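Q: What would this complex look like in 3D?
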Amino acid sequence: GAGVSQSPSNKVTEKGKDVELRCDPISGHTALYWYRQSLGQGLEFLIYFQGNSAPDKSGLPSDRFSAERTGGSVSTLTIQRTQQEDSAVYLCASSNLQVLTYNEQFFGPGTRLTVL
Amino acid sequence: AQSVTQPDIHITVSEGASLELRCNYSYGATPYLFWYVQSPGQGLQLLLKYFSGDTLVQGIKGFEAEFKRSQSSFNLRKPSVHWSDAAEYFCAVGDRNTGFQKLVFGTGTRLLVSP
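A: Here is my prediction, written as structure tokens for the whole assembly.
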């Protein structure tokens, strides 16, 4: 079946503009994750959704970042008033989460965000 | 707090030669350890994982990794590298208490394969 898809693949924006990044998880996966991959920084956890539970937002770097997941499927990561330090690759992953056991996170190809 | 260190930013290996990528972790309890590979323009793919039991784990594409608690290491190995192995490799640690939702990744090692 189809994997995790993300759009757009590349986004160039000007400092101060808002951007929206989209993630389509694997059909039927209950959990969805956002990570940020900055140059030389590895991957940084941002936010996690599981079913109808409140999302874990503990990784969001500032209140300019927010995310929502509509209908338990598609998710949108929004960055308001973008700054140059927001430039990074934003990766989305999904998994069929079960309690107290590991379920592989399947990653999308990412959205490369460049803030000028 | 958990952390993962990958001390090598770049490694160049000749095709057919053996490979070892280093990973050290900092974690108080028994770690759950992962290696991922990211090919250009692709998402991350899980190579292998360690939860418990045999400290030598086998993964896909001929990779293996050995968990050494005394050294806090989980190094990735392959006996003979192919040109298609050129990619970036990430070591990660997960926490069973959080259901593995928050994987902590290292900064990655970029593997270059020379002919």
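A: To summarize the key features: The domain at 3-114 of chain B is CATH 2.60.40.10 (Immunoglobulin-like). Chain B touches chain A at residues 4, 9, 32, 36, 41-46, 49, 51, 90, 92, 94, 96, 99-108 (CB under 8 Å).
Q: Very helpful, thank you.
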